[in-house]
Amino acid sequence: SSQLSSLPLQILLYVNGIYYIFYFLATLAMIIYKSQVFSYPDDLLAPDLAVLFLMAILEVPRLYLGFKGNLTEAEAPLGLSLGLTVGSVLLCVYLLLWQTYVLWADVLLNAVLLSAYGLESGLKVTAIAAFVS
User: pLDDT tens, 73-131?
Assistant: First the structure.
């Protein structure tokens, strides 16, 4: 029996988990900074924070299912992780394009995260294809 799980995917999931902690803390700090420095409308602060916290809530099962699916060579958890990645991408795009104030640091952080999501998604699709065949 051959091993079908993907080492590059496993490494990327691990690195992405660490990067997301940094991303969350940096984005939260920037939202707090923007609310203090700029005239941040009170009714728009809550949605920006809600998107960030919803993204953090999605990240935990997304990474867990990715790890589990890859290590057990099961396509269902990996497929669910891929679906959650789509949700995370949409929330990331919101923070990149539609939050109240977008700083250059927001663009940089979100571009790196979106790149990681894209690479991770490609590796997930490749791993699912290997598991099915």
Answer: 999 999 999 999 999 999 999 999 999 999 999 999 999 999 999 999 999 999 999 99
Q: Which backbone phi and psi does 41 adopt, to 5 degrees?
A: -60, 130
* Amino acid letter, 38: F
- Specify the DSSP element, H or E, that contains 18: helix 7-37
For the chain, what is the radius of gyration of the CA atoms? 16
pTM of the model: 0.95
CA 63 to chain centre: 9
Contacts of 128 (CB under 8 A, 6+ apart): 75, 78, 79, 82
Burial of 31 from C-beta contacts in 10 A (0-12 / 13-18 / 19+): buried
